[in-house]
Design brief:
Layout: E1 5-6, H1 27-40, E2 45-47, E3 57-61, E4 76-88, E5 92-96, E6 106-110, E7 113-119, E8 125-131, H2 132-145, H3 156-161, H4 163-171, E9 180-181
Bound molecules: nickel (II) ion.
Nickel (II) ion binds near residues 98, 100, 140 and 144.
C-alpha cells in the first residue's frame, strides 16, 4: 500500500524516533509499504518518520546510482534501531534532496565515512562501515530518525533565502507527483 509522505513542517519529522522490538505490530507490512511508497516516489531512501511513524526504521535502495557509483548497484537494505557510532574524514558538500521537501535540492556538508550498528528486518545485528555515496544516503536517512532534515544543516543565511519555498511546501503550494500530507494545508479550500 502506498502511504502518504509527510511534508516539511510536519511534527513527526522533528521527533527523535524510538527503537522498536521484534514484536512491533505489522512490521513486515510497514516495511513492504515503505518500499512501495519509496519506489512510487522515485526515491533511493525513505525513513519511517516520513510516513508519520516515529520509529527507528529506514530503507535504502541505492541502485539508481549504479551507473555512476558501482558500489551502489546492489545496495538494498532495511535499517532498524540504527545508531551511527562514528563519523570521520573531511567534510564534503554534495547535492541532496528529500521526498519530504519536493522540488528542492541543496548542497549539504557531511563527513565522508561512518560506522553504523543496526538490526535488519530479521533483527540480526550488524556493524558496518561505509563511505562515499552510500554513507551520504545513510546519513540523510539516519538524520530523519533523529528528527533532523537536511535543511537544518544549511547556513542561517541559506535558511532565510529558502523560507518562502519551505512555507510553500508546508502549505502544499508545490507540484508533486506522489501522495503527500501537507501540515499547513487549509482544510477548506475555495
Ligand atoms: Ni529525506
Amino acid at each position: 500500500m502506498i502511504l502518504p509522505i509527510v511534508a516539511y513542517g510536519h511534527p513527526t519529522l522533528k521527533k527523535v524516533a524510538e527503537d522498536i522490538s521484534p514484536d512491533y505490530p505489522e512490521l513486515n507490512t510497514l516495511i513492504a509499504d515503505m518500499w512501495e511508497t519509496m519506489y512510487e516516489a522515485n526515491g533511493v531512501g525513505l525513513a519511517a518518520p516520513q510516513v508519520n511513524k516515529s520509529i527507528r526504521l529506514f530503507v535504502i535502495d541505492a541502485s539508481p546510482y549504479g551507473e555512476d557509483f558501482p558500489e551502489t548497484a546492489d545496495f538494498k537494505k532495511v535499517f532498524i534501531n540504527a545508531h551511527i557510532t562514528s563519523e570521520s574524514g573531511e567534510s564534503a558538500e554534495m547535492d541532496e534532496s528529500c521526498l519530504s521537501l519536493p522540488g528542492m535540492t541543496e548542497k549539504v556538508g557531511r563527513l565522508p565515512k561512518l560506522e553504523i550498528s543496526y538490526v535488519d528486518e530479521n533483527f540480526e545485528p550488524h556493524t558496518e562501515t561505509y563511505e562515499g555515496i552510500i554513507a551520504r544516503i545513510i546519513q540523510h536517512e539516519y538524520d530523519h530518525i533523529d528528527g533532523v532534515l537536511y535543511v537544518d544543516r544549511l547556513s542561517n543565511f541559506k535558511k532565510i533565502l529558502l523560507k518562502g519555498k519551505l512555507r510553500d511546501i508546508s502549505t502544499g503550494n508545490v507540484e508533486v507527483a506522489y501522495k503527500m500530507t501537507f501540515p499547513l494545508r487549509a482544510r477548506i479550500r475555495r
